[in-house]
Fold this sequence. Notes:
The strands form two sheets. A four-stranded mixed β-sheet has the order 1-2-5-6. β3 and β4 (29-30) form a beta hairpin. The protein has a single domain (8-147), classed as Metallo-beta-lactamase, Chain A. α2 (64-74) packs antiparallel against α3 (79-93) and α5 (118-127) packs across α6 (135-147). It has helices spanning 38-49, 64-74, 79-93, 103-109, 118-127, 135-147; strands at residues 8-13, 16-22, 25-26, 29-30, 56-59, 101-102. It is built from six helices and six strands. By secondary structure, the chain is of the alpha+beta class. It is globular and about 45 Å long.
Amino acid sequence: HTAGHIAFYAAEAEGTPLLFCGDTLFSGGCGRLFEGTPAQMLDSLTRLAALPAATRVCCTHEYTLSNLKFAQAIEPDNSDLAAYTQHCQQQRSLNFPTLPSSIGLEKRINPFLRTAEATVVQSARNHEPATTTDAVSVFATLRTWKNNFK
Length: 150
């Protein structure tokens, strides 16, 4: 997200691992690239995705529904994504937060953590034909697409 950004990880916090990731990873999305390269951001996200699946993800903003709308444009047939979207819509309708999320969930629904999945690669290539199958190329296309997604 930014060159000086840091994340905090606790392997044991009230029974489960806990991650404070600021604006690097959001539920269903990731932060904009204000500094650095797509490769650097993807490397950061890959490191976070390697944490235990039960790790609670505490990000900085409640952007979940907006991120999920974009994720559904990428993977409209992802059943985990559809179920999570419904859950989050219900949470927000009750004025409850959607956060924290978990690493395991994000690996199933977040397109920025799924850049090697065939469906994500194909969506990126459909949007921008110059996209290669390389994860950094897919990530860069997704991030640019999300920047302008309505």
